[in-house]
Structures are given as C-alpha cells and as structure tokens.
Amino acid sequence: MPELPEVETVRRTLLEGGLAGRTIRRATVAHADAVRYPSADAFAAGLAGREITGVGRRGKYLLIGLADGMVLVAHLRMTGRLWLSDADAEALPHTHVVLDLDDGRQLRFRDVRRFGGFHLLADAGDSAAPQGLRELGPEPQDLTARDLASACRRHPKVSIKGLLLDQRAVAGLGNIYVDEALHRARVHPLSTCASLSAKARGAVVRAVQEVLAEALANRGTTFLDFRDGTGEPGAFQEFLRVYRREGLPCRTCGAPIAKLRVAGRGTHYCPTCQKGDGSPSSTARSRTTTRSRPARTSSASRPAR
Predict the structure, then answer these.
(1) Does 219 have pLDDT greater than 60?
(2) pLDDT for the residue numbered 225
(3) Which CATH architecture has domain 4-134?
(4) What residues are annotated to the active site?
C-alpha cells in the first residue's frame, strides 16, 4: 500500500507537472465504485468546469483543492495510481476515472484491486469526508517524543509496531516504514508500549522521521504498482534495511533478517539489533514464531516488479 512517502511523491510530481491552475473540462467515471461520495453522476457534474487550485496531503490521503473551496479527496490504498497523461497515450486496463484538463492532458486514476477511490467534498470540513481522514493523528514530521509517550500511556499493552500502524496515533505510516524505523531505532516490533523507555521512544521518533526523509529523497518505494504523478517508479526499495529481506544479512550486524507477524502484518526485523526495550517476553516470543530462510548470496533487496 502506498504510504506517506509515496503519496507525498505523487503530490509533488503532480504539482511539478503543472496540475494546479488547470481547469477540469470533463470527468469520466468508468466504474462507479471508484467514487465513494457523492454518486458518480454528481461527481462528474461537480468537477466539470472547475479549476484546480492546489494539491495537498494528509496522511495517506491526497487533497486536491478546487475552486469555491471544494476538495477532491483521493485515497490510493493498495494498488491505486494517479498520474498526468497525454490524452492520446494508451489507456491502461483498470483505469476507472479520467479527468480531461484544459491543456489537453488527462489526470488518470487506475486501480487494479479497486480498493481506492474519491470523495468530492463541499469543503475541508464536510461531514461526508471519509472517517479515516477525520480521525488522523499527527503527521510524522510533527511527531514528538512527548506525543508518542502520550499515545503509549493510552495503549500500554499494544505493541509499538501496532501503535505506529494506527493512523489515529501517527498519520501516514504503513508496514514498510514502520519496520524500517524500528530497525533503525533498535526496538523490537513486539515490544509493548508500556515497556519502552523515554530513550527508546525518542529513538523511534527520530528513526521514523529519518527513514521518511530518505524515502522521499528517493521518490518512494516500488515493488509492484506504485508510480509517481508522472508514471515513474520509486527507488527506495534499493536501500531498505529489513523490509522484504528475510534471510538476508542485516546491513548493520550481518545476522539474518527474520520475519514474524505483528498486529496482523508480516514484520521484518533483526533479532540481534532489535532485542526489545525492557520486554524480555516479547523477545522470547519472537524466537518461537520467527520463520528463517537460508541467507542468499546477494544482500540486495528484491527487485521492483
């Protein structure tokens, strides 16, 4: 699923491509379920003739500003792509929404698994906004150790990975960057929030911010579907330290990367670097649930597909 770096990369490339200031001449909806609110017909009618004033982001949501204060909310979810295209470019399968622009180009939305979609809102405070958007926690760049401590006090028995995946605690993080941040912070993903010291919480906050900054500098991570607003893949998959590197040597200590399930998600970590923070039971549990593979000859991450 596209996470904050991927969605922010789409936002930036759409702006760089000149989307702001363009007027939508026509909206075509090929699959009505790509429009979550209002109806597909009302969506198309509401966009026609409306100027795009800007492109923002909140968590994993893209917020496309429109004339008269309206907001087009796009959520890419697992396989969604939103990009600027020449109108005569080949139409890709599973392209569900196309916005014709006044400069002859199109803003296209493609989603193979059809989990993503749009909300067209009267304004940023519209009660029809998706619940997930209304409940978002702080952006990671604004997160402080005090914020994390407060969230840990509210959820003392939750694993630190589970907490970081909760969009109400921190907006925009997902499986890739939580695994990467916890490795950098040297915190075991099963460590409970109550077990984390102030030092560990500070390390987690710094690691989250560092890994997101590096991912943004490399235009996000692409394994399969992600493309930016111009249709180009990201490059951060080449620099991942643990995610999808099960059985490969840790880039820090050389021990094989292990995998277990935390908060219902496949979780990659280094058993040597990430021994937990005051949570021996969590570390012991990881030994009994980890699946290991023989180390491969190459330490490179899996290639993009």
Answers:
(1) yes
(2) 82
(3) Alpha-Beta Barrel (3.20)
(4) 2-3, 60, 265
**CATH 1.10.8.50 residue spans of the chain:** 140-289
Pick 140-289's CATH classification: 3.90.120.10, 3.40.50.300, 1.10.8.50, 3.40.50.970: 1.10.8.50
Are 137 and 164 in contact, with CB atoms under 8 Å apart? no
Residue pLDDT, tens place only, 18-57:
999 999 999 999 999 999 999 999 999 999 999 999 999 9
Query: CA 161 to CA 263: how far, in whole Å?
Result: 7
Q: What CA–CA distances, in Å, run from 175 to 2, 5, 23, 83, 244?
A: 10, 12, 36, 24, 11
**Tokens linked to 184:** 């950098």
Q: Model confidence at 1, in pLDDT bands (50, 70, 90)?
A: confident
